[in-house]
Amino acid sequence: MGEREEALKVVEIPGRGRSLVASQPLKGGQIVLKDSPIILYSALPLIPASSSYCGHCFRTLPLPPQPIPSCPNCNSERFCNHNCLSAASTSTHTPWLCQSLLRLRHHHHSSSLSLEHQLQARFLLAAHNLANLSSPHFQTLLSLQGQSDDPESAAAAQFILSLISSVCPPPSSGWFSLELSAALLAKDKLNGFGLMEPFSESAQRSVRAYGIYPKASLFNHDCLPNACRFDYVDSASPFDNNSNNTDIIVRMIHDVPQGREVCLSYFPVNENFPSRQKRLREDYGFGCDCDRCRVEAQWSDHEGEEEQGHGEEEEEEEEGEELMDEDVDQTMASSAEPEPESDFPHAYFFVRYMCDRNNCWGTLAPLPTPKSNVMECNVCGNLKNDDQQLSMDDA
């Protein structure tokens, strides 16, 4: 872990806050961070209580006839095995948290809560649980970005705090204040990572659990990221025997020099400019001004002019497609990435680093092995060697 931490350093970048930059030249495929969650909680509705995922490690539960142990107190949470059940009783499913969730479910029977409020209640209870279990980890949570002056978080905190105060047994330390609850909800909104359901070519993936990762939360967003996250929830990482299945592992997509900021994309890179800007403003409170967005913002500025052309519109569209094809050909012919100032800076990225499997849109990064020319998709797990897609089973 020490070597990985040395690959990145925390710096303050004007307008971007705390950021992670390369403290040495980094190679494509290099693992630069492994991070464990300080909070994990289910992303599923309170009812039905039983899910197809373990209540501790969130692996997909085994199929019958293999026995699946349940919590003896609530009989709602199910676990991979007795080891997970035992570990959960002192971490993710303590007796206090068990009883709190049980009472919240009973309340939900008579008073329907929106899914958003259910998840916010789950998080605040998990935060209370963390404060009771580990003061150092709770202080780390408090140090993350997110303030109580966020209007949405303040309104939600008032409702959720009133709810859990009336239906749940207070912990020994009492309940959080309204201001602290609002700040915690804001921190969850800005720093939470989703642990996703298994990939499917025929269905949209949803979130099975949310986690807060203290180091990974420092990564800023870029619409052309130079790193991407991998998680191996249903199995331990094949490249790190010491990792837990809920750890986030961040690998470099391509080489970057020392001093360059290392960024993730907060969502699939195939989203268009308006959609990206909308999600970033609504979910994270900022607009993106990366190289790709600056180019695509100019395209957006000309959309109205193109619409006024009527008869010229189809002609211009065809011309634009031809230019795009030329740009892609040029970037594919080059072994280096295009300069940020180019007219189409993401063409090379799409061709080289975006998975083309149906319904995936994941990002490819080289395997963390010396001189590897095989890249792994961080969503579906497929491997790409030159122009051939190989499944994990065939690798």
UniProtKB/TrEMBL annotation:
SET domain ranges (all copies): 6-267
Region of interest (Disordered), ranges: 299-341
PROSITE patterns linked: SET
Biased composition (Acidic residues): 312-329
Pfam family, one: SET
InterPro entries reported for this sequence: ASHR2-like, SET_dom, SET_dom_sf
SUPFAM superfamilies noted in UniProt: SET domain
Biased composition (Basic and acidic residues): 299-311
PANTHER family, sorted: HISTONE-LYSINE N-METHYLTRANSFERASE ASHR2 (PTHR47420:SF3)
Protein's name according to its UniProt entry: SET domain-containing protein
